[in-house]
Each structure stands twice: as structure tokens, then as C-alpha cells.
Design a protein that fits this description.
The protein has about 180 residues and is mainly beta. It has one domain: Jelly Rolls. Helix content is about 5%, strand content about 40%. Strand 3 and strand 4 form a beta hairpin. The two termini are about 30 Å apart. The structure holds dTDP-4-keto-6-deoxyglucose (T46). DTDP-4-keto-6-deoxyglucose binds next to strand 5, strand 6 and strand 11.
Length: about 180
């Protein structure tokens, strides 16, 4: 795997190192030793999949508050999405800043999201599927979110959302979010 630090401390873009031959391709998607060598989390308790029918679907920006705060490893297995994380860490020099990675099903690349970040994405193709690993179990009572369309975030989403949950449309702006 190829690890590339992102501009927000602790966040990492991860590409696979495919081994291709006449049969197709084989690649490592995860390795305890490689992750540990990079100082990344190696304990995961839940795996989820997000299946999105239409391009333009916007999900997020979500997080879980302590003690249920979580590290996420999000990978695109089909289609394509603009994946965005926002730094909500208390005392962070980059609080409120975001960074984006294009997750591509053809590359099967991933983003490693540390604790203290809100996460969301907009799909760029119909049928986009993202696979999540979570370091902490789902805790509905500790869920929070910020509005992905908040102008204060300055996120350049590819298009107006085609699909978006009512919950996400009603999320509060960054200024109403207590740091994590
Ligand atoms: C996250 C989660 C959700 N659920 C249930 C709760 C709802 O009944 C249903 C859909 O959940 P939600 O509307 O939160 O799904 P998304 O809007 O795609 O949110 C997810 O995608 C954004 C971008 C994220 O980063 C979060 O990890 C995750 O919240 O699955 C579970 O049963 N287990 C879980 O771990």
C-alpha cells in the first residue's frame, strides 16, 4: 500500500499496490504491520457499506462524539466519490478546515480519517459503493453532524445534491458545533 499524508494532520490517503496478470488483479487492502509502521490504528470493530444509486448523492458531514469518537477507513469499491473531511479537533490549528480526496472504484483507494473529524461525500457516478472500517461501534446517542452546505466550510461540492437525507439537510452549521 502507498500512504500519502493529507494536509490535515493525521489524515492519510491510501492507494493499493495492485499485482496484475492475465487473470486480473490482486492487491492488499489492509495490513496490521503496514498500518502500525505508519502509526495508524489497527483495531477495527465494525465494517459498513454505503450503496448510492445516483450520482450527486450527498451524505454527511457526520461524526461520533467522545467516548464513541471513531477512526474511519473509507474505501471506494465501485463508482467514484468526492470524499471530504472537516477538522473539528479541539485546539487544532486547522479547526474548521477541510480536505478532499477523490475515491475511485477503479483505483480502490481509501482515506484514513482520524478521530475528531466530520466525514461526508458526494457521489460522482451512479452506483457508487463505499466500504467503511470503524474503530468504534455505532453509537446513535453520540452521533453529531455539521451541514455540508454551510458556506463557512467553503466545500466546493461538484454539484447541487441530487439525493440528501432530511437529517443531513437539517444539520447545524459549523459555528454551532462544539469541538470534539
Ligand atoms: C453509521 C451506521 C448507521 N446505521 C443505521 C442508522 C440508520 O438507520 C441507517 C443509515 O444511517 P445513516 O443515515 O447515518 O447513514 P449515512 O447518512 O450514510 O451516514 C454514514 O455516512 C457518513 C458519510 C458517515 O461518515 C457515517 O459513518 C455514517 O453515518 O443505518 C447502523 O445501523 N450502523 C451504523 O454504523
Amino acid at each position: 500500500m502507498i500512504f500519502s499524508p493529507l494536509p490535515l494532520a493525521g489524515a492519510v490517503s491510501i492507494d493499493i499496490d495492485p499485482r496484475e496478470d492475465a487473470r486480473g488483479m490482486f492487491a492488499r487492502l489492509y495490513c496490521d504491520d503496514e498500518f502500525a509502521a505508519q502509526g495508524l490504528n489497527t483495531t477495527w470493530v465494525q465494517m459498513n457499506i454505503s450503496v448510492n444509486t445516483h450520482a450527486g448523492t450527498l451524505r454527511g458531514l457526520h461524526f461520533q462524539r467522545p467516548p464513541a469518537d471513531e477512526i474511519k477507513l473509507v474505501r471506494c469499491l465501485r463508482g467514484m466519490a468526492l470524499d471530504v473531511i472537516v477538522d473539528l479537533r479541539r485546539d487544532s490549528d486547522t479547526f474548521g478546515r477541510h480536505t478532499a480526496v477523490t475515491l475511485d472504484g477503479a483505483r480502490r483507494n481509501a482515506i484514513y480519517i482520524p478521530k475528531g473529524f466530520a466525514h461526508g461525500f458526494q457521489t460522482l457516478q451512479d452506483g457508487t459503493e463505499l466500504k467503511y472500517l470503524h474503530s468504534t461501534a455505532y453509537a446513535p446517542g453520540h452521533e453529531g453532524g455539521i451541514n455540508p452546505l454551510d458556506p463557512a466550510l467553503g466545500i466546493d461540492w461538484p454539484q447541487p445534491p441530487v439525493q440528501m437525507s432530511d437529517r443531513d439537510r437539517d444539520l447545524p452549521p459549523l459555528k454551532e458545533c462544539d469541538p470534539l
